[in-house]
């Protein structure tokens, strides 16, 4: 089905012709879109301990970056131009941000990273750079000039606190107004500069490096592999050089390491836990006065249920993954929970069986899910 969000393209055609291949400019992707929060609300978030934020300034050709949380008074001391505030994971604080991200669910949830929002006064930006991931740049209030380039020269300015391209050669340029959107595939050089006070909503998608996957999989094996045996050398011989590592020791260590095995199921389980593992700064708050289980079940049957804004839920085959943990419910319960993973919010749980309801109550006590409510303001 064609959609204005993709400039009249169907999601299928967008994935075939543009995703990770070439940029796409969409005028009026979200008509009348002015943003989800105000400048002052974004600044308030940047002052919170549980938010990740950066303040990037440029003065006399030199860049500076500071990391939050910030004191509110910091923003009254800033110049009128040439600075940018960026706040990550807006979808962890604002229900309307989750609703925005759901418009992009033609991309699997397993690929989604977060919604970042940036505010900049006139001439503010973060300099010409490239990202290693796909991103949709949706313009909120104000206007921003975007310059892009398919250049292969990725050399960076040395000793700069942010990754600035040394030799950016602009090939295309547009001014984005509220509701306009620019999609950029990984590695595409771009430079965004505010023409006036503006806010940009960046829908970013995670693309882990193979080195990161390998490192994290080794951590997974450390926790899940059981290698029996212990080093033994009853037939050790006298060495004339005691500092030398003998071949029998190396051979025995190699034989022990050869016992490390994994299969497709291990990779599947690893990916589920890895992709749903919360970021290090994220924590969940259990309900301070939890409902009894019967009352909770009644409420979610009548009013529905939703994932906590910070929760990540995926599934594969017979396993449900939620916030780094795995569950293997029966087929009926699994089908119900898969719908929650797909939609993030369900209007009712009347079709849930007892097993699914029991799991939901457990997750409710952990702070992973909650009784559905109407989208509101920023979570406290």
Automatic annotation (TrEMBL):
- What UniProt keywords are attached to this protein's entry? Dioxygenase, Iron, Metal-binding, Oxidoreductase, Ribonucleoprotein, Ribosomal protein
* Cofactors that this protein relies on: Fe(2+)
Does the record's keyword annotation contain Iron? yes
Q: Name one GO cellular component term.
A: ribosome
Task: Report the PROSITE patterns cross-referenced here.
Answer: JMJC
Cross-referenced InterPro entries: JmjC_dom (IPR003347), NO66-like (IPR039994), ROXA-like_wH (IPR046799)
Sequence ranges assigned to domain JmjC in this UniProt record = 96-222
Record has Mitochondrion as a keyword: no
SMART domains noted in UniProt: JmjC (SM00558)
> In this record, what's one Pfam family?
WHD_ROXA
Which PANTHER family does this entry report, sorted A to Z? MINA53 MYC INDUCED NUCLEAR ANTIGEN (PTHR13096), RIBOSOMAL OXYGENASE 1 (PTHR13096:SF8)
Output this protein's name: 50S ribosomal protein L16 3-hydroxylase
Biological source species: Nitrosospira multiformis
Lineage of the organism: Bacteria, Pseudomonadati, Pseudomonadota, Betaproteobacteria, Nitrosomonadales
């Amino acid at each position: 089905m064609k959609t204005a969000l993709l400039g009249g393209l169907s999601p299928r055609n967008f994935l075939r012709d543009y995703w990770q291949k070439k940029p796409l400019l969409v005028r009026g992707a979200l008509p009348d879109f002015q943003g989800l929060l105000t400048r002052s609300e974004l600044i308030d978030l940047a002052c919170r301990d549980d938010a990740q934020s950066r303040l990037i300034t440029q003065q006399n050709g030199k860049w500076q970056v500071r990391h939050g949380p910030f004191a509110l008074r910091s923003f009254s001391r800033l110049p009128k131009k040439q600075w940018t505030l960026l706040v990550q994971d807006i979808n962890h604080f604002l229900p309307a941000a989750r609703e925005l991200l759901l418009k992009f669910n033609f991309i699997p949830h397993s690929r989604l990273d977060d919604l970042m929002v940036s505010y900049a006064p006139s001439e503010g930006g973060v300099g010409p750079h490239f990202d290693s991931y796909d991103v949709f740049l949706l313009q909120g209030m104000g206007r921003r000039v975007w310059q892009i380039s398919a250049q292969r020269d990725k050399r960076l300015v040395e000793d700069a606190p942010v990754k600035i391209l040394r030799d950016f050669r602009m090939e295309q340029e547009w001014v984005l107004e509220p509701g306009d959107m620019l999609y950029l595939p990984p590695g595409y050089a771009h430079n965004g500069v505010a023409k006036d006070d503006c806010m940009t909503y960046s829908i970013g998608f995670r693309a882990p490096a193979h080195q990161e996957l390998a490192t994290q999989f080794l951590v997974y094996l450390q926790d899940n592999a059981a290698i029996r045996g212990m080093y033994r050398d009853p037939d050790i011989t006298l060495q004339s050089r005691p500092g030398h590592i003998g071949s029998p020791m190396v051979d025995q260590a190699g034989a022990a390491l050869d016992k490390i095995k994994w299969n497709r199921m291990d990779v599947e389980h690893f990916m589920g836990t890895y992709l749903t593992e919360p970021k290090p700064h994220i924590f969940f708050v259990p309900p301070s006065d939890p409902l009894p289980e019967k009352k909770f079940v009644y409420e979610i049957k009548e009013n529905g249920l939703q994932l906590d804004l910070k929760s990540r839920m995926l599934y594969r085959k017979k396993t449900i993954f939620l916030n780094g943990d795995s569950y293997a419910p029966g087929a009926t319960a699994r089908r119900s929970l898969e719908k929650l993973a797909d939609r993030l919010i369900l209007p009712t749980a009347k079709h849930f069986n007892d097993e699914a309801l029991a799991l939901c109550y457990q997750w409710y006590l952990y702070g992973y899910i909650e009784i559905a409510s109407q989208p509101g303001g920023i979570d406290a």
